[in-house]
Amino acid sequence: MSKLGGIAESGAGYFAKSMRNLWSLLKGQRKAVLTVVFWIVVIRSIDLSFPFLFKLFVNLKPGTEVTYWSNAVICLFWVMAGLTVVNILFRFFKEVRAQKILIFLENHFPVIAHAKLLALSLDYHNHNNTGAKIARIDNGSKTLVNVVGDTMSALVGQFMFLVLNIGLILFMDWRLGLIFLLPFIPAGYINYLSYVKFGPIWDKIQSKKEQASDIFCQSIIGVFTVKIYGQEEVSNLEYARMRGEIKDIDIKTIKRLQYYQSAVSGILYLFFYVTLWFCFDFVLKSKVDLGTVVYIYSTGATTFNTLSMFIYIYARVLKNLVAVNRMKDLLDEPEENLIGPDVTVPKEFHGRFDLEKVDFSYYNKETGKSAAILRGLDMTIEAGKTTAIAGATGVGKTTLLNLLFRMYEPDGGLVRLDGTDIGRIDRPWYLSHFAVVLQNPFIFDRSIDDNITFACRYIDGWSRKIICSATKGERDMALRIANIEEAKHFPDGIDTIVGERGARLSGGQRQRLELARAILVIMKGAKVLVLDEPTSQLDPKTEEAIQINLKILRERYFFTKIVVAHRLATIRDADTIYILSGGKVAEKGTHSGLLSQKGLYYGMAKQQLSRE
């Protein structure tokens, strides 16, 4: 059971802790919430003033003092009329303000959660499923709005009604007040037992909902794979079974919870009639006035109905708080430390990288074990040169790039840029000098133009508008160098929407589109071009044309080029080639030099030639 199973500790304790979490999430809206709460207190006080004034009316004695009695009746009438007008006005302002708060929260929290996810480390995203994260945010945002609405409009109002009414009855007659209050004790205890029993189950239901969302998202994201292998029915059955489990647990829980709530209602109504019996007995014995009995009778049923509804809504709020707390846990996840104590912004970016005795392991949080990838790796990437990295699958080539991107921090050793530890360099400034082409490019479901200019956008400091710094000429040049000028002849030209993950493009077109994006970044001032299997889906002729275009680009712009590739034809012209093996540099040299050594590189080249 997760830490959210703390519901089982105590209904009230968990509620208090969750309310503190909720209060921390309401930053910026707390004053408005307190204003609504104040209006609710006033409204509930006015609601109770009507039966209290009626009590005074009942206790008036018409007869001899006709003038006094008639004046009192008129006075009470106008007081009640005035309070009615005030009540209507307060309810209007309360509802308007409350709805504004709820609408704000409904749209504000997804934005906060989105920003948080973008701020979390790559390691966090690699260990947490996208569908589950989306479900946590979606459920948390929706239920947070519901909790705030229930708390403001229902719980606070009902609680104040109960407190004020019981206080008035105790003030009128403490004996009847104690009898009236007596059933609250067993009702509260039964309520506590129900939360001890059902709290962990609510947590389990919420967790299963996130798992169901994971199954749903995976099957839709991988719809091509699902269809190509004819797994539509299997995938749907898998999802249906998970939702069926949730349904069965939820229905069973609701049914059992009703037993507790019915027991509470039975106790409350039983004691209500006991209280009425004592009221009539006290009137007959002249221990209380008739107005007090009328007041208790007119508010008693409402009070116990209110308490029953309070318990019901309290249970609903507790159940919803599970999702709110899960989202709060997400928002409390530690972010990447982007700014160290001695962060610096170098005056210049030349582009030389030195990796000194670098160690790195992937840590599995579930098993507690680590898998060593890099072990004491030494490497130098010269500024303005082309450095290639090759090796068998799984030797750490992509891991090495992620260390350069500062997506991970090395377990040991240092990575330096122009002599400065990259951990001490301002990260946004550092990353602004990279242009990257990945083996599996991510293409947004936007236009071709939006995709290639994605990294050239910035926020205007004054207007807060998103502005693109790339000119039309620069975009055309990027498309030409990436050899994807055919995009101009698409149905809507470069405004053509390419579909989710570039579904309407071929694999080669997706790679060339991302290459155009990276080239545009180089043209806007980036100093490092990283190519991770950039042409794996291109034919040799297209790849050769792109390589020629990149050489032309290099004549105009100074940048360091880092290439990771299995296909040695892609890296044969590199100034330096590193061969990784066993987490270290096994060989280093030029294409011809490494071939003459007849080592790992020679074996790779021979193997590729035999396949061709």
Query: Helical amount among residues, as a percent range?
Result: 55-70%
Name of the CATH class of the domain at 3-28 and 95-331 = Mainly Alpha
Backbone CA Rg: 35 Å
What is the structural class?
Answer: alpha/beta
- Calculate the terminal CA-CA distance, rounded to whole Å: 56 Å
> Which strand order does the major sheet show?
6-9-10-3-11-12
Annotated CATH homologous superfamily of the domain at 3-28 and 95-331:
ABC transporter type 1, transmembrane domain
Keywords: ATP-binding, Membrane, Nucleotide-binding, Transmembrane, Transmembrane helix
InterPro entries: AAA+_ATPase (IPR003593), ABC1_TM_dom (IPR011527), ABC1_TM_sf (IPR036640), ABC_transporter-like_ATP-bd (IPR003439), ABC_transporter-like_CS (IPR017871), P-loop_NTPase (IPR027417), Type_1_exporter (IPR039421)
Domain ABC transporter: 355-607
Transmembrane segments: 32-54, 66-90, 152-172, 178-198, 262-283, 295-318
Task: Give the tags.
elongated; ATP-binding; transmembrane helix; ABC transporter transmembrane region fold; alpha/beta; 12% strand; 6-stranded mixed beta sheet; 4-stranded antiparallel beta sheet; nucleotide-binding; Rossmann fold; 612 residues; P-loop_NTPase
